[in-house]
Specification:
single chain; 341 residues
Length: 341
């Protein structure tokens, strides 16, 4: 065992990336990365219900604004599912339209609550990986800051994905304009371009999350290298989860629960990966701040004389009496021993 440990230490000394990997894993474990990832996953799943409520409310508003489309939909439902089932579906549609405002309002409130809880746990987890103080700010200050961080992250994701789609579509339009869209390598080029743009988008998101979401902001340059690892690793994680979902949904039970389980697994491992990448950034050589050790001051010798307190008169009398009694008892004992002899 000692020989294996020695060889592993030699491997760490020889390869910096191995030593960095070990340091990041130790930081992740010491800072309770798995526990924080579980908390982030819980609030992520909790946010799905209000998000679905908002989506249903939006669909209700959309249907309410187009009565002709509602009538056509109800007619098709009645044609495809005549009888009680069709009537039930039409009743659900009418209730969704009539209660869209209430459902949307309640969904927004629940989404804000669960979203702020999700952001609070994520920011605490990221702060812990950076080694910041775990004491959160007061709730009056924390809730608005976490809400702003949640809105900022949502805006960043929206803008990034929108730009990714626009750039990919623009490249396709340019190839079509030049008459190169039907060439053999056009589709391969568009696929490669989409992958590169996706990696760039992931890099921006990871750099933002690692550097700006912790309670104490970190310079973006400190998160640049780790964001590259996060961008590439996240794409690999998505591909792996796609293969996992294709495998698990082939079984009868997986066809029913596979999507839900796959979503839970993906959120949990994505949370763990984000925290590990943050630990990687925090344990890099350039980000590990070496605090100077303060030089102790000169030694000062101060002699002190401690005078023991004098015994009181009662104490002296008691001690003399005890000594006299002990002497008397000793004399009596000696006399008894002489008589017995």
């Amino acid at each position: 065992m000692a020989e294996v440990a020695s060889r592993f230490q030699q491997l760490r000394d020889r390869h910096e990336w191995v030593d960095h990997l070990v340091r990041a894993g130790a930081r992740y474990t010491e800072r309770h990365g798995n526990d924080y990832a579980a908390a982030v996953t819980y609030f992520s799943v909790l946010s799905l219900v209000p998000v679905m409520m908002v989506a249903f409310a939006a669909a209700g508003f959309a249907l309410g604004a187009r009565p002709a489309a509602v009538e056509r939909l109800q007619h098709e439902i009645t044609t495809e599912w005549p009888g009680a089932l069709g009537d039930t579906l039409n009743t659900i549609i009418n209730q969704a339209i009539s209660s869209a405002a209430t459902v949307g309002f309640l969904g927004l409130l629940a989404a804000l609550y669960s979203g702020i809880g999700w952001m609070t746990n994520l920011r605490d987890a990221l702060s812990a990986q950076w080694g910041h103080l775990p004491t959160p700010p007061p709730i009056v200050k924390r809730v608005p800051l976490d809400l702003l961080a949640l809105l900022g992250l949502g805006l960043a994701l929206t803008v990034t994905f929108a730009l990714t789609g626009l750039l990919t579509g623009f490249a396709g339009s340019v190839l079509a304009f030049l008459g190169l869209a039907q060439r053999a390598g056009a589709q391969a080029f568009l696929t490669l371009l989409g992958a590169l743009i996706g990696l760039a988008a992931n890099w921006l998101i990871f750099a933002w999350v690692i550097a700006r979401l912790p309670r104490e902001h970190v310079p973006l340059r400190n998160a640049a290298k780790a964001a590259v690892l996060g961008a590439v690793g996240f794409e690999m994680l998505k591909q792996g989860m796609a293969i996992y979902l294709q495998t698990i949904t082939r079984t009868p039970s997986g066809a029913v629960f596979g999507s839900t389980l796959g979503l839970l697994v993906f959120i949990y491992y994505a949370s763990r990966f984000v925290l590990f990448v943050t630990a990687w950034a925090a344990t890099s050589r350039e980000n590990q701040s070496q605090e100077p050790v303060a030089v102790p001051g000169p030694a000062v010798i101060r002699p002190q004389m401690v005078v023991a307190p004098r015994p009181s008169g009662g104490t002296v009398a008691g001690l003399l009496g005890a000594g006299a009694l002990a002497g008397l008892l000793g004399a009596l004992l000696g006399a008894l021993l002489i008589r017995r002899r």
